[in-house]
Amino acid sequence: MAEALMAVMTRIAFLCITAAVFGSSAHAQNYPAKPIRFIIATAPGGLLDVPARLAAENFERAFGQRVLLENRGGAGGNVGAEAVAKAAPDGYTLGVLHQGIVAINPFLYKNLPFDPLNDFAPVAALTSSPVVVVISGKLPVNNLQEFIALARRDPGKVNFGTAGQGSIPHLAGVIFAQAAGIRLTHVHYKGAGPAFADLLGGQVQAIFVGLGVVRGHIATGAVKVLAVSQDKRLDSAPNLPTSREAGLPGFNVVTWFGLFAPKGTPAAVIAALVKQVLAMQDDPAVLKRLGEGGLDVLKETPEQLGMRVRREYEQFRGIVKAAGIEPE
What gap in Å lies between CA 114 and CA 155, rounded to an integer? Predict the structure, then answer.
């Protein structure tokens, strides 16, 4: 009797597993059967919109389904990220998230409404963008070493502006000062626009941003770009020296944007999405549009993206602590 009961239970378990496998496979084969929603975890008009729109256009052509773009800014991207984490894991709600949400916000906010390491399924990295060191055109220096020497002569008197405490530009300034052995004063504003306006006006002497923010002002002499914070020159701006070439090899800050799904999204669906992202990243027209914004393609498998998140999570834990930022 016991053996017969065990046999029945084993048979039932087998059928359940088989149904789950075939159900997942059928779901993947029919995917997508309706529009896909991209939640962009910033306010409209930000740099995150660029890869999101390119990916949406590519998906629409490849899948024959509409991709709906929904910007959800607020709390450093936490509002949008929460919506992704709590969405149904069926491949129809995806998040376009930036590095700060998963690697920095955990140390800026006491009670995150999601777990950045466990509530998302990494799909694909999209783009990367090194920070560039930008100074006011009114500052009487012309290269990185002269700027460092100026800051060293007057500790704390050289200011850098950012859109907020704990942001990538702020932490880039902290990393820069540590690498250069200097002391800079952080001035944070209610947005990148006011910070940039004060750079142009000479109220702050430096900012640390993506090239796309300042590209249109370089030729006028309003700003000077002193270095790119990575070991490789930007394809879209090959005349700009890397931080190593400019004499500060310890300054490397690269921001990135990635595509994430809710945890539990079927692996076959993620594979279909990855295939389309990789195809998009080989498109010359896409590369051109990204380059105009100072963005490079970042090709990584879901596993590599997941490893990146965990690695930078630990890295920024120490950086935020060194910056003296207390979580709120």
Answer: 40
